[in-house]
Amino acid sequence: MTSSTLWTVLAPRRSEPLLALTVAAVALIAAGLGFLTVRYEGEYGLGIFLPAAVVAALAVWTIRSEHVRSWDAFSPLGLSCIFYLATFSIGALYAAVDLDHPLRHVYSVEGMAQAMWVGALGLGGLIVGYRANLFRFVTALVPALPRVNSHQAGAVMIAVAVIGWAARGVVFATGSYFYAYDNEGAAATATPGVVIMLAILPTLVVAYCGARYNIAKRSGENDPVMRRWFLILMTIEVAYHAPRGTRAAFLTLIMMVLVLRYYGLHKRPSLKATVAFILVGMIVVFPVLFSLRNEGQGSQAYEQNLGYAAQSAVDGLVAQSPTDALDAGFTSTFDRFSGATSLGAVFQCACPPPRDPGVTLSWVATSVLPSSVLGSTDRPERFGYEFGRYYGISDYSGIALTQVGEMWLNYEWLGVFFGLVLVGGVYRVIGDYYGRRSDDPLALAIYATVAWAIVNTQETVVAAGVVGILKQLVIFTVLLYGLTWLLVAAPSRLRSRAA
């Protein structure tokens, strides 16, 4: 590949705004370097801030590049950059300088710096794989999403909602509604994985109403019915998820709204709205949900006395000083993006990996099987628990290893780069298959529903994260194909034959 060809793959069509934005990102981190160097009397120097600046600049440049190229800042590549920015730049930097971090005993500042450099390499590989479009032939082989008009889509979405709420009924009946872990670190649930994925369908219906409304509004039309249904169903979603105390559910809804507005209205998130979302999430929502979920233990767990737990969480927030609230918000937020600390623990331990090279990657071939077929030690979602115990991070909960960490444990530097190149190629297939998301409400609804999952699942091994996203998308798409045929195509053919 020549240098000009490489630049064509990596560079945006307009580089001037990106250069300014990249310089601004580096300048902000440099300012942070100066402040913290003075604050901690030189304890933290360029060695810890330089890799953070590299990851931040690369992530910001790429997001801006996706926006300039094709109004696609929230592409799978852009969403991945959000994860790397939060985990291997801001989150890792926060963990490195936080002397009271709960995992401080398992990593060093030097190990965190090395983890950030590995994260930068992984992000570089992801960008190369995504831009090179390694698996473009897959998109050509897979049938396109079904096209239905607004009246036909209404019947399909009603059926989707019925199936989704039926699945949620099963979730309730099997005791899997509340957030809990078993003694092996995996989600404690008796609900089949397919049912859990189907329980996401009501969110898809909300997204479809928002997509219909936003796309129509962009074209100069007004659809107050869709707007009304979007607000009603969104309120129901918030009410459904609030008692569970899971931050991921609210982040899913927030990211869904951002994606719907960005592609549907062709409006970038405003700086004021973004800052407001971040501050409210960090200072209010995340600490309250974290306190709610951790209120009580054993028989006094929060689901046993939800009202008391909620009141205690709110009282704890109100009783804090602004400084304490901000500190608690930072902690609860960046603890959510603590994947770099796992890799820092690996470098601190300097011991052989818990599995032979290639074993966790081989799970990609078997992870499509039901969990009942797999042994308890071969389920990818349980590896985080094994990893946490092995490196002395936690004895009772799963630990976010990240795809970068998995690749390092398998094949170190080469594994990180080339492994993430392949992952980037898979993400490009997802991005291209739902490429009509700016104009097709169905494509936009599906993509907006899984947008946060694309960010969040990068904490896990590839067999649980990437494969999990693909399984969810396949279930959604196949179900929509089936319902479209059953409710639209088949009746139309019957009427044609009758005529």
- Share in helix: over 70%
Distance between the termini: 60 Å
Give a count of the beta strands, DSSP E runs of length 2 or more.
0
Shape, principal axes of CA atoms: globular
Structural class: mainly alpha
Could you describe the largest sheet, including whether it forms a barrel?
A: none
Number of individual domains: 2
- What is the count of DSSP helices, taking H or I runs of 4+ residues? 20
pLDDT < 50 runs, ≥5 residues: 1-18, 182-187, 296-300
**What gyration radius follows from the Cα positions, in whole Å?**
23 Å
Q: What is the mean pLDDT?
A: 80
Strand fraction band?
under 5%
Order of helices and strands: HHHHHHHHHHHHHHHHHHHH
Description of the molecule:
The chain has 499 residues and is mainly alpha-helical. It folds into 2 domains: 185 residues, no CATH class; 246 residues, no CATH class. The chain has 20 helices and no strands. Helix 15 runs antiparallel to helix 18. The N terminus is likely disordered.
Keywords:
499 residues, mainly alpha, 2 domains, 0% strand, globular
Compact overview of the structure:
The protein is built from 20 helices and no strands. With 499 residues, the chain is mainly alpha-helical.
Draw up the topology in text.
Layout: H1 3-10, H2 16-39, H3 46-70, H4 76-97, H5 109-132, H6 136-141, H7 150-173, H8 193-198, H9 201-218, H10 224-241, H11 247-265, H12 271-293, H13 306-319, H14 322-334, H15 339-349, H16 359-366, H17 383-390, H18 403-433, H19 441-456, H20 466-498
Helix pairs in contact: 2-3, 3-4, 3-5, 4-5, 4-19, 5-15, 5-18, 7-9, 7-20, 9-10, 9-11, 9-19, 11-19, 12-13, 12-14, 15-18, 19-20
